[in-house]
Write a structure and sequence with these properties.
CATH architecture of the largest domain: 3-Layer(bba) Sandwich
CATH topology of the largest domain: FAD/NAD(P)-binding domain
Strand content: 25-35%
Number of helices: 11
Bound molecules: flavin-adenine dinucleotide
Helix content: 25-40%
Largest sheet: 8 strands, mixed
């Protein structure tokens, strides 16, 4: 019987599988996708400095950074709002680091993780869609759809992402009633590693330097998102530029527009008998602050530590699972509270919110210790 069966070898599940590759434990990872494919399309992911450190230890960072333009350092973040005063910039030099974070594409990251998994010898089975997880006192049974053979393991690690609806896992879901419109934008001048967070009328926009262009995430209400997606490219670029005001006005072309509904989804509880959830399967956060994968990566890393600390015979037992859950509680809830708070403070354009928001941004700009704490939270989590 394998020690662990990981359901979902997306970025978080793959990270855990790699972290345990040399542990001597018997690990199997299952994923519905075909080898080399992703089911989630592409998106620009902002990774924290802490995320880089984890990927470096797994040997993934070097192979990711080898591909031209696959990793783009963020040296400055420009935060501003339209129709109100208050703005601030966060600089890498304030944090004493070469970069505030890094932008990678989801597809490039997944490909680098898949390559590392290939080399590691971990048993990864692609094209396996899991239907449910059943548990008994001594093991979990992971049951694929369409008559596939169930796998019994000491511990089922559920890393199947958002809304996958695996039977046997309780999740609470709150629809934000918002949609993220994402895509890539070319600009006339090079980005110089500057990212923007713009609280525009209609919804916040994150503009992330990626390769030789920008990736953007624009949060809108569903009707507005539909009409933005339907616009011809030129008209979209004009509307986008209008929201950016004078912060940046040299947008040329847009490509790869898509949308994602935005939800807050939480596994309740995140651990139960012989089951642990990690990554988006445990907590799906609003992308407003680019925290989701960063938190998920820390889930994978801390789960590895809890498993190794407990030893093989204790894998999947209550004390090991409780120890992991306790270690993750503060960071998990801080991620939820931080993003949820930002959505309410920054996701609205009501005039009575614009003013205190402006004060907040101005204070952040004027009080260096405050700025340093904020920058630290963005880089390493709570
Ligand atoms: C628009 C947008 C922008 C974002 N930007 C950022 C950002 O800047 N920074 C950041 O940190 N995070 C960001 N995120 C969040 C980030 O994308 C997620 O946190 C991350 O992808 C979670 O990884 P995961 O491995 O948990 O789940 P997923 O990426 O969803 O992977 C799940 C895997 O499980 C597999 N799977 C699913 N169901 C089954 C099944 N039944 N059987 C077998 N396999 C299955 C899938 O094929 C997939 O490979 C953003 C999210 C969105 C929507």
């Amino acid at each position: 019987m394998p020690d662990l069966c990981i359901v979902g070898a997306g970025p978080v599940g793959a990270t855990l599988a790699l972290a345990l590759a040399d542990s001597g434990l018997d690990v199997v990872a299952l994923d519905a996708r075909a080898p080399g494919a992703t089911l989630r399309g592409d998106r620009s992911l902002a990774l924290s400095h802490g995320a880089r450190l984890i990927l470096e230890r797994l040997g993934v960072w070097a192979s990711l950074a080898e591909a031209a333009g696959a990793v783009t350092p963020i040296v400055r973040i420009d935060v501003s709002q339209s129709g109100g005063f208050g703005s601030t910039t966060l600089d890498a030099s304030d944090a004493g680091l070469p970069a505030l974070g890094y932008v990678v594409s989801y597809v490039a990251l997944q490909a680098a993780l898949d390559r590392a998994l290939d080399r590691s010898g971990v048993d990864v089975r692609y094209g396996v869609v899991v239907d449910r997880v059943e548990t008994a006192p001594a093991s979990a049974s992971i049951v694929p759809v369409a008559g596939g053979t169930p796998i019994a393991a000491r511990l089922a690690v559920v890393a199947d992402g958002t809304g996958a609806g695996l039977a046997g896992i309780e999740r609470v879901r709150r629809d934000y009633g918002q949609v993220a419109v994402i895509g890539k934008l070319e600009t006339r001048a090079p980005h110089g590693g500057v990212a923007y967070e713009r609280f525009a009328r209609g919804g916040p926009i994150a503009l992330l330097p990626e390769g030789d262009r920008y990736g953007f995430v624009w949060t809108l209400d569903p009707g507005e998102a539909q009409s933005m997606l339907a616009l011809p490219d030129d008209a979209f670029v004009s509307r986008f530029a209008a929201c950016f005001g004078n912060r940046r006005d040299d947008f040329l072309r847009v490509s790869s527009r898509k949308s994602f509904p935005l939800v807050l989804e939480l596994a309740r509880p995140p651990v139960s008998n012989r089951i642990v959830t990690i990554g988006n399967a445990s907590q799906t956060l609003h992308p407003v602050a680019g925290q989701g994968f960063n938190v998920g990566l820390r889930d994978a890393w801390e789960l590895k530590r809890a498993i190794l600390a407990a030893g093989r015979d204790a894998v999947g037992l209550r004390p090991m699972l409780e120890a992991y859950a306790a270690r993750r509680r503060a960071d998990r809830w801080a991620g939820v509270a931080f993003t949820h708070g930002l959505v309410h403070l920054f996701g609205t354009d009501l005039p009575f919110v614009r003013w205190p928001r402006g004060v907040g941004l101005a204070m952040l700009d004027a009080v260096p210790p405050l700025k340093r704490s904020f920058t630290r939270a963005m880089l390493f989590g709570a």
